[in-house]
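Field reference: sequence -> structure
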Amino acid sequence: VLIVTALRDPEFLAVEQALASLGPKLPLDARQYFRLAQLPLSPTRTISVAAAHCERMGPVHAAVATSKLCFALRPTLVVMAGICAGFPKKAVLGDIAAAETAWLWQDGKFAVVEGTSGFQSSPHQVHITPEVKNCVTELKHDEVLWKSFEGRAREIGAAIPKLVIGPAATSAAVLADGRVRDSIATTQHRAVVAIDMETYSVYVAAESSPHVEHFVSLKSVCDGGDEVKDDLHQQYASTVSAEAALAFIKRFFTSPNG
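Structure field:
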């Protein structure tokens, strides 16, 4: 298994804390390192988990880092953890957005039509496998897992996190404008639940790897991608995402489809 985050702090640090048995930093190349852990599934079965973060946030660095890691480590499952923006009334603070489908919402063409300049969208979408979708659906109904976040959620005045399965848009730019956020739902996918800067690129890189069979992004909402965007809850969301990612991995490899 490969777990990827965009940033070292706070996303990768949360993964390191969740994976208590991580070994030392191992060089992938001059620009990239990773850490390994053995994750117990039962008294007689463990799986190897590699964890790494990108050099910088954004779709380009996510694609490069994931491609290099998949080529070198040959994982069969890639999981992206970290933080994202949620769409109001669909995914709120702390909720996990499981990206059933991902695309780069800025893909398309700028053109002049009848004297008017405009943008014509033509995004390419990547989808998770049915096996991953089934496991994510099971995780959604894991009351014990979500109840375990109750105390931490109460400390920041948030509701107990839930898992939301749906389309997630990837952006090449930080989004702090509610009007732009809402335009993605009205012009591209009305069911979109979250937006981030890496998921689509990780999906494309994983799908392109001959060794990767499954991939999923399980990011936690830290803001609404609007004018009140801030960094206050990034640590909390990173922790929820990291722990949910580990719960998913354990469930995936112990389920009939794993």
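Note: The first helix runs from residue 8 to 18.
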